[in-house]
Amino acid sequence: MAAVILAWNPDESQWTGTYPADVQTVRKAGVLRQAWSMTSPAALDPGVDVWFLVVGRHQAMRGLIGHGILAGISGRTATGTARLDIDVDVLLAHGDQVGMHLVAERIPELDTTEFDALVVSGSAETALRALWAEANAPEAASVFPVPGALPASAVTRIAVNSFEHDGDLRRVALAHRGSACHACGLDFEQVYGVAAADLVQVHLITPLAHIDETYSPDALVDLIPLCPSCHVVVHSRWPDPYSVEEVRALLCRSGFLRGTVLSDEQLEAEAAAARMLGA
Questions:
Q1: Residues 169 and 236 placed together within one structural domain of the fold
Q2: When comparing pLDDT for 140 and 6, which is higher?
Q3: Shared domain check, 220 and 194
Q4: Number of structural domains the chain divides into
Q5: Tens-place pLDDT, residues 253-267
Q6: Domain that holds residue 217
Q7: Distance (Å, rounded) from C-alpha 104 to C-alpha 212?
Q8: What sign has the CA pseudo-torsion 175, 93, 69, 17?
Q9: Tens of pLDDT along 30-65?
């Protein structure tokens, strides 16, 4: 499936909305609907990847600055102009764009001298995705690819708890509580080394019944560091997840494989865990 690059000149009124605020909206909510007018978009089908390329007289601002998925085409006029509805899922601040010199170097077949929209496919599309993926790393501890790194046909949108995936909230919670799992005690840096120091996840302990549209979590109180394994176990019970204390109890009772003989060290660790839990 081909992708399309849309040229955006910030000196013109192409972007609907306040750009800095929209950057934060995409960062927090994950997606923002953007309407874009262009002529003759007949070759575009809903579902294709869309990149925004800043052009214009300001050299320092030029480059790839956003990505989205074409949701639909509407509002065609007699002159051939139509409105593209684009679900933007990555939006970089001005200054953080993938520079035009890198685009020209990595995708030399791309002619960006003067255009409204460029349809790219084949090796150019592959190079575009590779450049975008290298320049935009996912949030720490995320297992999800950066939007645009894979073709739209190879990904699906899933709903996640945005508070557990908010980078700012996570950083505050870890600075307050430390980076070890509060259920099993796993410390990524201690076990795997410095490369894995920032991979622990955070779990929102606020009950679902207390979360409404006005809810705002307190990162110092409502978010608990958990390793991915314990985090999965916590959420394996629905709609009321296991508490961290319940997961500790599960570990205390089942911290070995059935049919195995425990070593003296394992028995001592199990006894210590039982004493900690008051068992």
A1: yes
A2: 6
A3: yes
A4: 2
A5: 876 555 567 678 877
A6: 162-277
A7: 47
A8: positive
A9: 899 999 988 765 567 889 999 999 998 888 899 999
